[in-house]
Please model this.
Amino acid sequence: MALTAKGRATRQRIVEGAAAHLRSDDPAGVTLDDIRAITGTSKGQIFHYFPDGKEELFLAVARYEADRVLDDQQPHLGALTSWPAWERWRDSVVARYRAQGRSCPLGALMSQVGSTPGATEVVSTLVGQWEAHIRLGIAEMQAAGLVRAGVDAGRTAAAFIAGIQGGVQLLRTTGSVGHLEAALDTLIDHLRG
Amino acid sequence: MALTAKGRATRQRIVEGAAAHLRSDDPAGVTLDDIRAITGTSKGQIFHYFPDGKEELFLAVARYEADRVLDDQQPHLGALTSWPAWERWRDSVVARYRAQGRSCPLGALMSQVGSTPGATEVVSTLVGQWEAHIRLGIAEMQAAGLVRAGVDAGRTAAAFIAGIQGGVQLLRTTGSVGHLEAALDTLIDHLRG
Model:
């Protein structure tokens, strides 16, 4: 659907309003009527922008939250070109998830949407972009002679993604960022050699 | 509740029957009546062994599944005393989760039980025992002079747990064990130095 600039703004207002509400409440209990009321839109407007209803809107919110995951790590994630840059990135990831604590907006949405192709695509895109940034950072460190050439950049980037994902998952259970920090610090140590 | 040997056997039969059924079906739709029918027990028996009903039974099944997670890694996990032992353990973890694929009995149960103190305790106990085995393995490798003394055994064990947890989580989304393998191989490389 091609939207006008005004249409895009309205759609974005609905997504951001829904995201804020879903962050403060259990997504399982949130209805389209709640979102309509909060964002001051009519039923007709909601279905104009999200013809498939709640699932489509929730997916749009998940995509918005996924973009925020990456935005929150910038500008560090996009310029992993020195050891201080890696440390700043590491700190920004830990700070972001420490602030988020046990709640995880994207995780809560995902367990609502279920494993539909759309939900899988949101997660795959996020993971792919995140991993590509880290892989590029490792390659740039290698080009600068700061990381030994023998390190497999792609495999190590995948290990970072697994460690972060698991650290965040364990934070949701334990309330502690300890595993997240251990994963990041151990893998950065590995790069330092 | 102190159970006789016969009582313990009956309770175990209910837990194992419920576990088999919950592995083949979505836990959300399973009722106590289903479990009663499958295990050939009466309502009275179920409530004798699980006075708090479904949640208590599901927690007992989660504990049983958590024990299996560790059992499936034995004898390797308990004797990480040489590089071939680490590789055999790594292969057993990957094979276990490759066979399990996108389904995760423990994860599915956990999303049913929610973040109750009982559920948190099951996960914490599993994570704690798993991590302790890996930490001991690293310490033994250090004592044998196979891993450098500068490696922080506790922190590295926590990184393994985060990487495995995240790798399994990503397997549930992507259907691939790639992230799990990347995490295990990178961290073992780190130990090898």
Q: What stands out?
A: The longest helix of chain B spans residues 117-143. Chain B has two domains: 5-60, 62-192.
